[in-house]
Amino acid sequence: MTSRFTVAIHILSLLSLREGKTRTSEELAESVNTNPVVIRKILSLLKNQGIVRNQMGPNGGYYLAKPATEINLKEIYEAIDEKIFQMHSKSPNKKCICGHAIQPILTKVYDKAQKVLEEELGCTNLDSITREILSFSKR
User: Fold this and answer.
1) What are the residues whose beta carbons fall under 8 Å from the beta carbon of 105, sequence distance 6 or more?
2) Could you state one GO cellular component term attached to this entry (predicted)?
3) Within 10 A of 88 (CB to CB), how many other CB atoms are there?
4) pTM
5) Which helix (H) or strand (E) holds 82?
6) pLDDT of the residue at 19
7) Under 8 Å between Cβ of 76 and 51
8) What digits encode the pLDDT tens for the residues 61-91?
9) Within 10 Å of residue 39's Cβ, how many Cβ atoms?
10) How confident is the model at residue 2 (pLDDT cuts 50, 70, 90)?
11) Rounded alpha-carbon distances, angstroms, from residue 72 to 35, 76, 80
12) Fewest C-beta atoms under 10 Å: which of 14, 26, 49, 78?
């Protein structure tokens, strides 16, 4: 698992804080403390799902495609397509008692956990994250 989902929420929160105005991938990368190429890859995934748009030209950059209240974390999670619960990339030894059974057993557990995760993410919108950021910064 990578941190693309967390980075996506970070950059979308920045865009939400500056709703109606653009931010460049360089500005976003500076806040995340990463390379702008990483940010552009994530923005491309978000753009494909209609979460962000970009504007070309001297005042160009990225902005939210819809209000933060209409973007939930499940939508972002699905756009990033980064699964938290994954099997090992190699098949285990099927002759081993554990290797034979582990994947089907864990698949059931992971599927249940995935459903709970997605339900929770669906209940949280980007606006609530942004409001918490503003509240946190006043401490």
Assistant:
1) none
2) cytosol
3) 9
4) 0.85
5) none
6) 76
7) yes
8) 999 999 999 999 999 999 998 777 777 778 8
9) 25
10) low
11) 26, 7, 13
12) 26
Tokens 């209000």 found at: 67
- Supply 133's token pair: 């950021």
**Four-residue CA torsion sign, 77, 80, 81, 83:** negative
What is the Cα–Cα distance from 50 to 62, expressed in whole angstroms? Answer: 12
Output the CA angle 121-123-125, nearest 5 degrees: 80
Fold that domain 4-137 belongs to in CATH: Arc Repressor Mutant, subunit A (1.10.10)
Q: Are 58 and 69 in contact (CB under 8 A)?
A: no
Distance separating alpha carbons of residues 11 and 51, to the nearest angstrom: 12
Q: Which residue has the tokens 């002759």?
A: 95
- Assign 63 to helix, strand or coil: strand
pLDDT tens digits for 99-128?
Answer: 889 999 999 999 999 999 999 999 999 999
Distance CA 51, CA 95 (A): 47
Report the alpha-carbon distance of residue 71 to residue 113 in Å, rounded.
22
